[in-house]
Design goal:
single chain, mainly alpha, 3-stranded antiparallel beta sheet, 60% helix, 7% strand
């Protein structure tokens, strides 16, 4: 009887450890560090956009699929192919949400229809989560407190509080990032990426 209880206790502890470690596994630290390196002049707004996309997916996608496809086609035809940026940048450590860079896509002659399909699948499969957004932001505040990103923790707290008071709006990249770096990408669920 004691061994049976011990076995149940051991299994319970293992399950608890698995749940804790899987919860810990999902973060956006690597994407944050990559973003700071790629856009040295980025603003807090750009970090919020990153956290928002990682937690909410592409929930700003339009219901007008014809207009959405035309926008993607126009944007893809307008981008240059001079960049050496990667085709896919995962925003979450579990690779569940990613950005597909349009310059790399055009350079590598990837299939636009496959990207469009991934975008629409993503819109219907991601459950936006403000709780996850808060978790990602709290993690970023920790990075700021440790001096690992170029912002102060109280600046991040203040910005997030403002966004929360506005019911977590979608934001564009900052003017500086738009004008200096011209980011061009689409948000998709990692498992939907098949661009061949």
């Amino acid at each position: 009887m004691k061994s049976h209880r011990f076995f149940i206790l051991a299994i319970s502890l293992l399950l608890a450890l698995c749940i804790c470690s899987s919860k810990e596994a999902k973060n956006i630290r690597r994407a944050v560090f990559a973003e700071v390196k790629k856009y040295p002049d980025l603003q807090i707004q750009d970090l919020y956009k990153l956290a928002y996309q990682a937690a909410m997916g592409n929930d700003n996608i339009t219901n007008d699929l014809v207009a959405m496809k035309k926008s993607l086609t126009d944007e893809l035809s307008a981008v240059d192919t001079l960049s050496d940026e990667p085709l896919i940048v995962y925003l979450t450590s579990d690779s569940s949400i990613a950005r597909v860079n349009l310059r790399a896509m055009k350079k590598q002659k990837k299939n636009l229809d496959k990207l469009f399909a991934a975008m629409t699948q993503t819109a219907s499969s991601v459950q936006p989560s403000t709780d996850l957004l808060r978790e990602f932001w709290n993690d970023m505040e920790g990075l700021a407190e440790d001096g690992r990103i170029p912002f102060k923790k109280d600046e991040l707290e203040s910005y997030f509080s403002t966004m929360e008071n506005q019911n977590f709006p979608i934001v564009n990249h900052s003017k500086i990032v738009d004008e200096e770096y011209h980011p061009e990408y689409r948000i998709v669920v990692g498992k939907h990426i098949t661009l061949q």
